Amino acid sequence: MENDNLNKLWDNQANEISNFNPKDIIIKAKKQRNSQYISITVMSLTVIILIIYAFYYAFNQWNTFNLGLILMISSLTLRIILEFYSLYRKEKQLISMAQKSYFAYLKKYYKARQMINFVITPICIAVYIFGFYLLLPYFKDYFSKGFYTYILISGVISLIVVIAIIVKSTIKEQRYLKQLHK
Question: What is the distance of C-alpha 115 from the center of its chain?
């Protein structure tokens, strides 16, 4: 009797993941991993540029300009660390699990990514915007009006592009999570 129940449970579980064969899961994991690498690269380049600028020009004395730079750098660095941790954790699990357990793990993984995407990322973006806002009075004082306008416009456009990339990757992850629940 117990064996029949276990067989039914096993059969039902097999049907739940029939939409995904191992190749599909691997392909989707690689696509998601590549988008994480792109995000990490873009954020890392931004951090490197901000750090180089900070060390050459900013840290002569402490002021709100330095605070703005530190806020921008720290928010991006936190996001980079979370992406690396998330990526490493997922790859480590992929190597050590069978298909069914990895499928279950993916569901948990994307649920955890929701926390990063809907709570931590907006906080990081808000801190970054506040840091940029703290820089603007200094840019206005030290640069010409035209260059200040260029910094303001390019900063806003860059931020919109980065937010669009984040939203696009979040939507992809949400779609994938919905596919996993089918």
Answer: 11
pLDDT above 70 covers a percentage of the chain that reads 80
Please tell me the predicted confidence (pLDDT) of residue 74.
94
Q: Give this prediction's pTM.
A: 0.71
Residue 143 DSSP one-character state: S
Q: Are 74 and 130 in contact (CB under 8 A)?
A: no
Asked whether 47 and 80 are in contact (CB, 8 A), the reply is yes
Q: Token pair of 112, please? A: 């955890």
11 Cα distance to chain centroid: 36
155 vs 166: CA distance, rounded Å: 16
Distance CA 111, CA 55 (A): 39
Percent of the chain residues past pLDDT 90, beyond the cut: 28
Q: Which residues contact 143 (CB under 8 A, 6 or more apart)?
A: 151
Q: Are 80 and 44 in contact (CB under 8 A)?
A: yes
Residue 35: its H or E element: helix 22-53
What sign does the dihedral 104-105-110-112 (CA atoms) show?
positive
